[in-house]
Amino acid sequence: MWYQKITFLFKNKELRGKIIFILSLFIVFRIAANVPIPGVSTENLRQFFETNQVFGLLNIFTGGALSNFSIVMLGLGPYITATIILQLLTMIFPALEKLYKEEGEAGRQKFNQYGRLLTIPLAIFEGYGMITLFQRQGLLGNLSPLVLLSSILTITAGAMFLMWIGELISEKGLGNGISLLIFAGIVARLPMSIFETFSTWDPSKIPSYVMFFVLAVIIIAGVVLITEARRNIPVSYAKRVRGNKMYGGVSTYLPLNVNPAGVIPIIFALSVLLFPGMVANFLGTAGGSIGAVAQSIGSFFSNIWVHGIFYFALVIVFTYFYTMVTFDPKNISSNLQKMGGFIPGVRPGDSTASFIRTILNRVLFTGAIFLGLIAVLPSIVSGMTGVQGFAFLIGGTSLLIVVSVVLDTMRQVNAQLEMREYDTF
User: pTM surpassing 0.85?
Assistant: First the structure.
């Protein structure tokens, strides 16, 4: 029973220590998110993020750190962007692809180290872009070169600090640290979003609120359904005789998730979508034709319709891309053949790999469209019901992240419990 698992979770000294450690790091993250860099009007910043939907979504991912202009205002964006760039480069440079896929744990560690190093220049670039944006919006006054340099270095150090915290959490084996920090940032904003939604209560809007929550329940059910949905491919194992024992001769399934990429494509798409705006803000103060073009690009990507269309398209593209990088049908086919497994009616080897790839592409289309719709649903729900603010947290990207992280963490916690107390569970 679930209460037995919770009881054992806190009775076991090792697991209890891991949970307390992770919760302590969440507290450190929340404290850092509320430590502002000097010289900025945080009240004006909050008003700006309440009226700007694109940056408002980014602010939710940082747990309000961006609107506070805090030392961790960039959140995990630079590290995620660095990871995207490196994974794209694996398609261009065979040596990097070999390092990532074929050299085992040592290769992965070196690949991750490259990601950490690339995070530093990206954090410097994005930090300068954010400061320039706030100055253009009149939210931040002119800074002396020394203050500007110290602010950029502080912002960069904050991004690296969060990256380090995320890796510490991952080492505990109770979930992905990066995802859990994003989850903590979203949940931290939940009480404030509820308060903002109902602070100006208007009885005439009761039908809109009812419609909003009905849509929210439907969307939550859809998110859970698609997140847990599987397409099972039947697999049989040939009978083998070793000594006096016979092995195999059983049938099982190869499960393919409808959404195998999880929430990663949405995070990747958001990071990439914000990058042109960063570049435009960086070059917008250059003056001349370059500055004019940069400002035009910034205005183009700030349009809500352009943002929605690009967001939807990028989520679909990254769903296919991430699945292609992490899921190799040829490797699965080879492993099945080595273990004496086969798909009934399909020849082993290349035919099996082609069959798995075909099924995956069909399933992935549904998952990609679903993720794209989830990404743009906040705008749709807000437009249909007129309810603002809380729509980000119910029926959108944030909800998918919360559901995915909770389900993944529950699976890892259950694995830890069963490993330690198998007979009980």
Answer: no
Question: For the chain, which residues make up each domain, given as ranges?
Answer: 1-201
How high is the pLDDT of residue 161?
A: 92
Phi, psi of 248 (to 5 degrees): 85, -155
Q: Which amino acid is at 138?
A: G
Query: What H or E segment, with its residue span, contains residue 412?
Result: helix 397-420
Helices (H), 231-385: 264-283, 288-302, 304-326, 329-338, 350-385
Q: In terms of DSSP H, where are the helices of 34-144?
A: 42-51, 53-61, 77-89, 94-101, 104-136
Given a cut of 80, whether residue 246 has pLDDT beyond it is no
Task: Please give the Cα distance from 58 to 60 (Å, whole number).
Answer: 5
Structure-token pair, residue 376: 């743009």
**Residue among 232, 199, 187 nearest 33 (CA):** 187
Q: What is the pLDDT of residues 260-311, one digit of tens each?
A: 777 778 777 777 777 666 666 666 655 667 667 766 766 666 666 777 788 8
- Phi, psi values for residue 67, rounded to 5°: -70, -20
Phi-psi region of 175 (alpha: psi -120 to 50; beta: other; left: phi over 0): left
Residue pointed to by tokens 């073009």: 293
- Is the pLDDT at 196 greater than 80? The verdict is no
Confidence of residue 383 (pLDDT cuts 50, 70, 90): low
* CA geometry: angle 235, 240, 246, nearest 5 deg: 110
CA 174 to chain centre: 17
Tell me which fold the domain 1-201 belongs to: Preprotein translocase SecY subunit (1.10.3370)
